[in-house]
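Work package 3, deliverable 3.1, input record:
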Amino acid sequence: MLFAIQSLPFLWQGLLITLEVSALVVAFSLVGGVLLGVGIVYGPRWLYWPIRVYSDFFRGIPLLVLIFFIYYALPLFSINFTNFVSVVVALAAFETAHIIEVVRGALQSIPRGQNEAAKTIGLRFSQRLLYVIAPQAVRRFLPPWINAVVDTVKGSALVSLVGIVDLMLAIQQVIGRTYRPMPLYVLGAVMYFAINYSLSSASRRLEARFAYIRE
Amino acid sequence: MTSSESVVRIRGLKKSFGANRVLDGVDLDVHKGEVVVVIGPSGSGKTTLLRCINLLETYDEGSIRVDGVEVGFRDGAERARKHRSDRELARIRADIGMVFQLFNLFPHLTARENVMLGLQKVRGRSAADAKQIAEQWLSRVGLGDKFDSLPGQLSGGQQQRVGIARAVAMDPKVLLLDEITSALDPELVGEVLTVVQELAKDGMTMIVVTHEMTFARDVSTRIVFMDGGQIQIQGTPREVLTATSHDRLKAFLARIEMKHH
């Protein structure tokens, strides 16, 4: 087991890269997904179709194809990203498409009468969203959003395929040196599980906080 | 009553949902302090008429002026009929109160916060001011002990009284009541109508869509009978409810009568 312990600092570096990629993607996709999700529900007609097409397209292609396309094919059009930027862009574009649908579902679950009541007391659109719709929609938003975050952490393992030494590639490199796949894959699985399990429990605590809202 | 006191002035109002014309040329004036009750069979356009007044529904033709201001379209754009911006509409709607059939209280806010929201965010009142006004109104509608209750913890009748408090706390120029007792258990109807009756006594201008004929007779200064998207007949409660020469009205009143016995 000594080699496994000796490899821990190296795996730790990989873990940090995994967390960094995940955090960036979660942040970008949250901002993008909420903006576009609000746009698709409340925006004008000309905004609806581009967002609809975007969401359907990026949810419809495999993530790996998207990563390879951005890293290997875009340079043909003189758009050159480093491998790190490529994967962050690819993952963010992919996750944004999913968050759009999560936001759409959460907003549409709020009865129409809520928006109407907010209108009749004279609230503007941004105020209706902020004080009436969002506080109710957040409860519907959280569970699927946490799922998307967990998917992001797992999906970030694909960045190893364009040569970024994340947790996944770090594990493989240690295996390459030691020829001991089993303990290292188990160790890697435990580390991924630890991240995602803490996310899920955090999510359960958050959901409990918003459970006071009755229908 | 002079025309300058006309709070709501509707002329030639037309509205279609697809091929279905629900409002087919409605003219109506509501003066300050009047309580106008709109009755009519379902599908006659009475709820749509109400919802056009604060532009929850847009209208195709005609004009609605509340306190002299055209609701649906920008001023000086008679020919272009340009719709108002969200910001302009918000300002207009702040002066038009509405109470809904299904209450539509904000479920994440307490009774007090439901009433305070508009006072703070729209009227610009301080939290302390808004709290005081909200508590005054909630007490007036008999909910002095329910300030901190969430809507889900209140009965239907109590929720609807919060709905009324939320609307009148904004000090609206006209109050629109859209079948506000239709979703209530029969034994809870009285407590809500009593509140409306008191508002009427205080001179609140109201347009009321209801099926409660006794209430219509006792509270209204005028009854308007709608059918087929048009106002068929209007007048004092006595004039309308005894206008036996009008066939459609007679048929409608007979149907209502049957449902209640």
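Chain A has a mean pLDDT of 89.
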